[in-house]
């Protein structure tokens, strides 16, 4: 039987505790406000909430627990429970405590213990998905021989849902941002600018959330003590072994008749020998169990580290896509600024032309003004002189203005001619890629090296290529955030012939345990989708190569194999 108050609690509507203790006025009960008065002050913060309990067998039930009961049961401080409050916005956090793991990842907020999970009841789709998915997985794996502890299964599902949720949001943002930026690049308007501003705000907020989840996972991976603290099943087993051993020792001491009948003896060593033997045997057993658990702890920590590393890679890739989006937006803004500056320059040039025309017209006006003075001169005796002055003045001003425009006209037509020749040449190279490849190979002395191992540094890359010629520069591209290798680099030779020999000799060969790919590196081509604006691949052209995020630099692989 459930009373009305419990029904309200299960539905998520908290009923004030003082609702039935209101004052009566004209036969109408007026409820008192909850939280005021001495009784309200005492009970504030101790309200009950509905929690979904999921055990290791995949069975779930709804419990109504107050704050004190839950804290005592899970062994948590009050500040950890505040992280699970849906009314407050807290950054993503994973905390390992003595008896529980507190998980607050996006909308998945739960307390993971050695035998069960407490999930705050909510109608949110992510919470319902976590409950159903965890129950289904536990019931499926119940008959299977799975060595992964229960708490790691629950933690893995929370990480999976959080990463998939963030990745889906990033994908949706990508699908929305790219068309808007393309439209803005072609048509600059107030509506498009406002739309891009809103999308950029959403992008920055999402980047902060993804960065927080990634940093939280990385912080756990960097501290073996925190990871060992999260192995709740092992700690519970050690505690149960210790309690059983202590209970067994106490039972032996209480059942020893010699100890009870003879309190002391001159030859106590012979009388107390059996008790000492039992104690030493039990202590050796406990030490053996402790050493065995400590030896297994490293394996367990490595297992948890592998679990965290998998989702760290996922979040790192998601973050790289967000950074690529941000770079694409920044490149589009730069492109818009260039277009606006170009329009401004055209207006300035037009203003300069008008100013020059006004200057020469003013000169003509000065000449006509001089002859318009009221003084006696023989020039005015012949009417044809007026026509001669006007014609000569007009011709001189026009010739001077043409000389002013001539350098600009020559520069304009020269640039137009060069652009036309360049476009024809590019079309010829595009239609004949073999010609372009041959020309580039003859002139390029810089190589792109992909698929590098994380252990490869600049010196190792230089030593590997130095046997093919004089290496001017060997550089492994490092990630600015983590300082780790991104899996690719560049090698510059003194001549293009040496670079070609190195490419043919090392392409597809093993270097530090990885098969590398070597090709000529050239500047990224210009255009709205590549190079200048990052393209749809932006700075992170995919997740591959030597375990790093490809692209991202000022060069690309010609065969798009990276």
UniProtKB/TrEMBL annotation:
Keywords: Coiled coil, Ion transport, Magnesium, Membrane, RNA-binding, Transmembrane, Transmembrane helix, Transport. The chain crosses the membrane at residues 352-371, 391-410. PROSITE patterns: RRM. Residues 445-523 form the RRM domain. Residues 196-223 form a coiled coil. It is a multi-pass membrane protein. Residues 255-270 have a biased composition (Polar residues). InterPro entries: CorA_TM1_TM2, MRS2-like, Nucleotide-bd_a/b_plait_sf, RBD_domain_sf, RRM2_NsCP33-like, RRM_dom. It is found in: Membrane. Its main location: membrane. One of its GO terms (cellular component) is membrane. Belongs to the CorA metal ion transporter (MIT) (TC 1.A.35.5) family. This is Magnesium transporter.
């Amino acid at each position: 039987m459930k009373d009305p108050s419990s029904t309200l609690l299960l539905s998520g509507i908290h009923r004030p505790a003082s609702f039935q203790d209101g004052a009566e006025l004209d036969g109408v009960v007026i409820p008192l406000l909850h939280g005021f008065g001495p009784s309200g002050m005492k009970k504030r913060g101790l309200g009950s909430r509905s929690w979904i309990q999921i055990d290791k067998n995949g069975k779930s039930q709804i419990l109504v627990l107050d704050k004190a009961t839950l804290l005592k049961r899970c062994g948590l401080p009050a500040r950890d429970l505040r992280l699970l409050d849906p009314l407050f916005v807290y950054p993503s956090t994973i905390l390992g405590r003595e008896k529980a793991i507190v998980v607050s990842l996006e909308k998945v907020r739960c307390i993971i213990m050695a035998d069960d999970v407490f999930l705050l009841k909510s109608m949110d789709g992510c919470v319902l998905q976590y409950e159903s998915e965890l129950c289904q997985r536990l019931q499926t794996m119940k008959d299977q021989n799975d060595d992964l502890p229960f708490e790691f299964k629950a933690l893995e599902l929370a990480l999976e849902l959080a990463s998939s949720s963030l990745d889906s949001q990033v994908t949706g943002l990508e699908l929305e941002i790219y068309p808007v930026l393309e439209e803005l690049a072609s048509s600059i308007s107030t509506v498009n600018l406002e739309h891009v501003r809103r999308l950029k705000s959403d992008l920055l907020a999402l980047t902060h959330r993804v960065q927080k989840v990634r940093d939280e996972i990385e912080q756990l991976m960097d501290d073996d003590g925190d990871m060992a603290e999260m192995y709740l099943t092992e700690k519970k087993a050690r505690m149960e072994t210790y309690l059983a051993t202590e209970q067994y020792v106490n039972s032996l001491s209480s059942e020893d008749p010699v100890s009870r009948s003879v309190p002391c003896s001159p030859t106590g060593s012979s009388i107390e020998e059996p008790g000492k033997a039992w104690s030493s045997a039990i202590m050796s057993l406990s030490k053996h169990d402790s050493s065995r658990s400590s030896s297994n702890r490293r394996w367990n920590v490595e297992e948890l580290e592998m679990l965290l590393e998998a989702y760290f890679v996922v979040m790192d890739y998601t973050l790289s896509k967000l950074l690529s989006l941000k770079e694409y937006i920044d490149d589009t803004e730069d492109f818009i600024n260039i277009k606006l500056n170009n329009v401004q320059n055209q207006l300035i040039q037009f203003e300069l032309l008008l100013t020059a025309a006004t200057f020469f017209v003013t000169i003509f006006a000065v000449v006509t003004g001089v002859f318009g003075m009221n003084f006696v001169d023989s020039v005015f005796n012949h009417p044809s002189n007026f026509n001669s002055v006007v014609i000569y003045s007009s011709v001189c001003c026009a010739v001077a203005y043409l000389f002013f425009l001539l350098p600009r006209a020559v520069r304009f037509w020269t640039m137009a001619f060069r652009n036309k020749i360049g476009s024809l040449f590019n079309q010829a190279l595009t239609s004949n890629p073999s010609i372009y490849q041959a020309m580039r190979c003859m002139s390029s002395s810089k190589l792109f090296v992909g698929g590098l191992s994380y252990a490869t540094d600049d010196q190792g890359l230089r030593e590997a290529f130095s046997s093919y010629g004089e290496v001017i520069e060997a550089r492994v591209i490092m990630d600015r955030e983590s300082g780790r290798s991104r899996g690719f680099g560049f090698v510059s030779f003194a001549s293009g012939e040496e670079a070609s020999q190195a490419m043919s000799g090392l392409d597809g060969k093993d270097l530090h345990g990885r098969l590398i790919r070597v090709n000529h590196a050239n500047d990224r081509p210009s255009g709205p989708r590549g190079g200048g604006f990052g393209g749809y691949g932006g700075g992170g052209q995919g997740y591959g190569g030597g375990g790093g995020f490809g692209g991202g630099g000022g060069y690309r692989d010609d065969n798009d194999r990276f």
